[in-house]
Amino acid sequence: MRDVAIIGVGLTQFGENWDQSIRDLFAEAALKAMESAKIEKVDSLYVGSMSSGLYAYQEHLGSLMADYVGQIGVPAVRIESACSSGGQAVRMGFLDVASGMHDIVLVGGVEKMWDVEDGTFVLATAADQEYEVYNGVTFPGLYAMMARVYMERYGLTREELAQVPIKNHKHGVNNPYAQFPFEIDLKAVLSSSMVADPLRLLDCSPITDGAACVILCPLERAKEFTDKFVKIRAVGSASGPIAFHDHKDLTRLDAVKLAGERAYKMAGLKPEDIDFVEVHDCFSIAEILVAEELGFFDYGTAGKAIAEGQATYGGKIVINPSGGLKAKGHPVGATGVAQIVEAYLQLTGQAGKRQVSNARFGMTQNMGGSGGSCVVHILEAM
Ligand code: COA
Q: Is 206 a pocket residue for ligand 1 (Cβ < 6 Å)?
């Protein structure tokens, strides 16, 4: 396999983008990425999107986007794996370049979530329809059950759980693309409306419109285009049971563990080598469970460690310097690519006030549903 580099990135503003359609969002991010990589033509294109059909009544995104960004003729397909669609699209782009099939590959993710009234129903199509959704449970309810078991088992308090979104909003203040770039305090979290006990509004990632794109090429060619590039050191992907009742333990996310182990093995690295990680904090409890599965903290300890400041600047590892899904926003199909964009900016020293100093290795973890799929990337500064 060839080594693969990221040579350009592009992001739209995350939030309520009423004046942009799904193709406008994708095109903005794609053209920014192509401009930053100083390229005009690509050889192949992947689009991650969870549910463009239900959210924007638009399928067939591969060809649509290739046409709209002036690349018609190239192989172009959409990749779907619920909320991990974006990260899985990056994995497909990586394989495309690594295999030698194509040299310049555009990978994007997009979701236009605000145009439909019942977004919760659309998200719930990624859960088990027969056993979960039919019985009335959607994602906030599933993650609330994980939180309940974890808090009961490990003695995590409601106040400690609140420190996850408080920390992520603090990071998000320095992200100009974030949907909610403001700080929140304990009182705000604990008095926000109840969504699914014990999770409140400020424990939940929001509904977001947005797109993110990256340009990949063989590492040996990266310098032809730019001096700002990073290497994709490793990728690990795994599937897990979609249905929550099939999880062996309600506080464990086996697909995250497997994907992480595969990425560490491919990279020849350990958790201690990673300087920062962008994790899939769709709900406060998710960041805690994922941080444990990726080996940054022992089981049962991540909640308290995050509350004690171990996951921010000056701590053991910086988790979600971008603000995470909570503060930056969560346009589901775009999220995995946006995580890669953040890692690229950090590793090329372009992250501004949220820069993690001397970062050499950055990790991204993107997850579908309540752990039904996961993809982990490790990026390396060059
Ligand atoms: N953080 C901060 N503020 C938020 C917020 C969030 N996560 N979500 C909404 N708000 C704000 C809104 O901006 C709005 O403020 P305003 O009144 O000043 O305009 C207010 O809170 C109410 O927002 P609204 O969108 O009407 O809330 P809602 O009750 O319809 O939806 C959730 C809130 C949490 C239910 C919804 O965002 C949700 O379903 N999130 C989870 C998404 C999800 O499951 N993703 C997939 C994960 S696997």
A: yes
Q: Are 105 and 215 in contact (CB under 8 A)?
A: yes
Q: What's the 380 CA to ligand 1 centre distance in angstroms?
A: 34
Domain spanning 4-118+207-230: which superfamily? Thiolase/Chalcone synthase (3.40.47.10)
- Give me the residues of the chain with pLDDT under 50, please: none
User: Whose alpha carbon is nearest atom 47 of ligand 1?
Assistant: 282
Domain locations in the chain as residue ranges? 4-118+207-230, 130-204+233-381
User: Counting beta carbons within 10 angstroms of the beta carbon of residue 245, is it exposed (0 to 12), middle (13 to 18) or buried (19 or more)?
Assistant: exposed
Q: How far is CA 234 from CA 21, 303, 364, 369, 374, in A?
A: 34, 27, 11, 23, 14
Is 165 within 8 Å of 312 (Cβ atoms)?
Answer: no
> Residue 125: CB partners within 8 Å, gap ≥ 6?
51, 54, 133
139 pocket-lining for ligand 1 (C-beta < 6 Å): yes
- Selecting from 3.20.190.10, 3.40.47.10, 3.40.50.9100, 3.20.20.210, what CATH number does the domain 130-204+233-381 have? 3.40.47.10
**Any ligand 1 atom below 6 A from CB of 184:** no
Domains 4-118+207-230 and 130-204+233-381 share a fold: yes
Atom of ligand 1 nearest to the CA of 82: 48
374 belongs to the catalytic site: no
pTM: 0.98
